[in-house]
Q: What sequence folds into this?
């Protein structure tokens, strides 16, 4: 499954989905990085490896005295003449711009906050960028932003520049995700340096810590990372991206954002319309819905996707585990979830599949589109007939579209999942930094009832996200992001009509909110969360835009 982080996906729910709905959060790669919702709601805590130095939790924040230097661990990578941009971000001290250089060298293995794994190996370079902690006071504290790239494989004379990628979330490490999914972008990697990074609050970039070992809630976030929490929102990361653009030597930003990454891309376009190059926003979150409205919209979308699966199952299988159609499917799966809530199903690895994990796993199969329907049939048969939950549990921890490494389709939500890391804490921190919604008890209960009523299968699990920012120690930025980008170059918005995580109507609104002549919508009549590179028509359109600057004609639809 491709797990792009979904930021608009089902993150705030329970374990790890992304809050894509209202801001484009992504269902992330699973409970590992998406676990935010559940963890945040106190239903499930992800084990996170934290490296906590002495101090009050803001350990990655540097002092204000010394000027930034961009360096990285490991041996020196082969040098080449790096391009120079002439338009630095306004308002920053020269130490961050003309006085800073990205020193690329061999990548180390992921840190504890990034998750488990090995170093990416040959062909990958890593660097650290210094950025202001607070762009309103850039002369004070700094943070280190972890970056990774793979140089363009084609001739230097044909290189367009750097293509910055964000796979969703929030809560996903781009430094870990890009090597895992770079093959999806091989055609683009001939003419672009493929570049990703850990957004602030995540992995190697000022990681938010919300507990000694596991996510322990809002109070723990304030205790361990209180100095960071006001500065990890999407607008701050968008400003980091413009500094990256300049240091990478590009006059304009070329960008591919998926799920939550579309919120990040839209906010960037609003803040820096004149620096917009070629931007792709795939499986976009609806920028007109607040966080709670987004939850409601998402749960309706995943229920519709489940009903379409149930119709297919009834027609294709004589012994379909969900029965004769959507109505019976809802009854059977709801009963299954109730049973798992009372007595979780065992697995060969010694784990257990409970009701929340099962709901996430079903949703993740649906994120994979029609390619996920067959495996979902088998997984439901296993738990219904044998009483074991191995297949569903595996998918529950891969929340988001299927990763290509598994031979399945990718989703736009949470593509780069990590094993371990601080994804739960980061998801909560970024979501609550972006959203100013702090519903009281009565408001939360009302929205909980609406979400539960909207979906018999997923409502109860998704509703846990309502309480995500309850008692958060800091206020959020706004109810909805401003993505208006008047004067920007055309931005390509790509969306599946059957997306279960970021509903198609949100893509229509994203294109409209970007502005007339800016947002160009490409409609893909397909199931699943994301279409690149799995839908040939959509892939050809995206490649034509990113490689040649050719946008599809208005109203273009891919079968």
A:
């Amino acid at each position: 499954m491709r797990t792009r982080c979904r930021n608009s996906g089902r993150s705030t729910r329970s374990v790890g989905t992304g809050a894509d709905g209202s801001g484009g959060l992504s269902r992330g790669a699973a409970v590992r990085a998406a676990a935010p919702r559940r963890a945040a709601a106190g239903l499930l805590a992800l084990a996170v490896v934290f490296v906590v130095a002495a101090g009050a939790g803001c350990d990655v924040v540097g002092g204000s005295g010394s000027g930034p230097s961009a360096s990285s661990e490991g041996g020196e990578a082969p040098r080449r003449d790096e391009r120079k941009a002439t338009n630095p971000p306004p308002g920053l001290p020269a130490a961050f711009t003309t006085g800073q250089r990205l020193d690329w060298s061999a990548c180390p293995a992921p840190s504890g906050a990034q998750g488990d794994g090995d170093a990416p190996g040959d062909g990958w370079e890593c660097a650290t960028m210094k950025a202001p902690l607070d762009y309103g006071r850039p002369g004070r504290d700094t943070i280190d932003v972890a970056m990774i790239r793979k140089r363009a494989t084609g001739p230097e004379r044909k290189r367009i520049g750097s293509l910055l990628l964000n796979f969703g979330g929030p809560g996903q490490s781009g430094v870990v995700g890009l090597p895992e999914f770079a093959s999806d972008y091989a055609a683009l990697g001939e003419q672009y340096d493929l570049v990703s990074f850990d957004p602030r609050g995540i992995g190697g970039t000022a990681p938010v810590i919300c507990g000694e070992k596991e996510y322990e809630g809002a109070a723990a976030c304030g205790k361990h990372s209180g100095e960071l929490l006001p500065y990890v929102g999407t607008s701050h990361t968008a400003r980091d991206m413009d500094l990256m653009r300049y240091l990478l030597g590009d006059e304009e930003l070329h960008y591919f954002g998926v799920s939550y990454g579309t919120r990040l891309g839209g906010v960037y376009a609003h803040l820096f319309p004149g620096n917009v190059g070629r931007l792709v926003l795939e499986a976009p979150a609806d920028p007109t819905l607040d966080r709670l409205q987004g939850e409601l919209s998402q749960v309706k979308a995943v229920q519709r996707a489940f009903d379409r699966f149930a119709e297919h199952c009834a027609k294709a299988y004589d012994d379909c585990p969900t029965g004769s159609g959507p109505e019976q499917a809802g009854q059977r799966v709801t009963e299954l979830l109730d049973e798992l809530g009372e007595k979780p199903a065992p697995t060969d690895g010694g784990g257990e599949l409970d009701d929340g994990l099962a709901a996430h796993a079903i949703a993740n199969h649906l994120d994979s589109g029609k390619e996920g329907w067959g495996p979902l049939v088998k997984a439901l048969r296993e738990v219904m007939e044998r009483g074991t939950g191995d297949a569903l549990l595996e998918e529950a921890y891969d929340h988001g579209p299927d990763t290509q490494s598994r031979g399945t389709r990718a989703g736009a939500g949470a593509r780069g999942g990590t094993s371990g890391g601080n994804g739960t804490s980061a998801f909560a921190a970024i979501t609550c930094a972006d959203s100013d919604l702090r519903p009281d008890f009565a408001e939360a209960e009302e929205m909980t009832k609406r979400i539960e009523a909207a979906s018999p299968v997923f409502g109860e699990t998704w509703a846990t996200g309502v309480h995500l920012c309850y008692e958060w120690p800091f206020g959020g930025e706004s109810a909805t992001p401003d993505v208006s980008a008047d004067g920007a170059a055309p931005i390509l918005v790509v969306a599946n009509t059957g997306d279960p995580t970021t509903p198609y109507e949100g893509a229509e609104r994203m294109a409209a909110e970007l502005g007339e002549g800016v947002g160009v919508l490409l409609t893909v009549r397909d199931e699943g969360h994301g279409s690149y590179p799995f839908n040939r028509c959509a892939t050809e359109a995206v490649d034509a835009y990113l490689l040649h600057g050719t946008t599809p004609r208005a109203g273009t639809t891919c079968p």
